[in-house]
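Worked Example 4.2. Consider the chain below.
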Amino acid sequence: LFLILLISLNTACLQVPSPEEQKQSLPQSQSFSESGELQIYFPYVGQGDSTLIQLPSKKYLLIDASNPQSAKEELIPFLEAKGVKKLEALIISHYDLDHLGGLQSLAEAGIEITQLYDRGSELIFNENTYTQYLSQALELDLSPIPLQAGETLNLSEEVEIKVLASSGEVLGENKIWTSLDLSPESYSSRENASSLALLIEYGNFRYLTSGDLTGGKDLDGFLSPDMESLVAASLKGTVDVVHANHHGSLSSSNQNFILATLPEAVIIQAGIHNFYGHPHPQVIQAWQSIGAKVYSTDEGKGYAVFSDGLDWELSEIAAP
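Applying the procedure from the previous section yields the following structure tokens:
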């Protein structure tokens, strides 16, 4: 069982915290009935990403599967404690090991995967990782279905999952494709820039998750492709909760993206004392500057968001 401390986030404006407050305390509790509820879980999975979504129909969707070690030690115990035996879908945002490395562990734990989705094979930058992933998928009789920008994934009548970006392409205004050339060798993080960006809507509630999507910043003399600004331009309306791109790295969360989304809460998945220094203090402060509250798993705990389609609340969850 998970120790759950329920909290409530109202739709009123949030007070901007002081710069030294890098981590936020949780508000007071408010409980929803589980009936007709969208639940989004952000467990502690080390230095990796994995988000479990329970649809109102009680079906489960997993976005990313963390790295191999954390999947065994953190993700699988979490899923087992939740009683998850079947995933309606597993979506791999991009082909980095810390996002897809747990596929084999899911199979070994006996968790059935109905369908596997990814960003396709048109652009492959991590060839060895992709080849191993594809081999594992085929061994499990899973044939990945590529998701393209502009698609809507129908896993539930109540919840809409829109693909805003995939492999450097974004669906812009009037259904005009915007494609970012990811071929220049001067770019770093081309695999990250190819991440899927997914907008999940349930009634009035909106949640955005985009893997390791990059924001065009100069890192060690290399430019990261500015996919975030393209997604920001395609986004109609703000969102309630954002899963911060690339674990809160300086390569992501640019100003265009922050101002377009304007979330009340930002979730960051990163490992305790990780080598990369994620999340970066400047990224935390950038989100806080627009009034968002930032919650990071680098303290060893996870979080969960619950919505009935009208209101929503956020909870802290302990490790199993």
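The radius of gyration is 18 Å. The first strand starts at residue 4 and ends at 8. Compare this with Example 4.1 before moving on.
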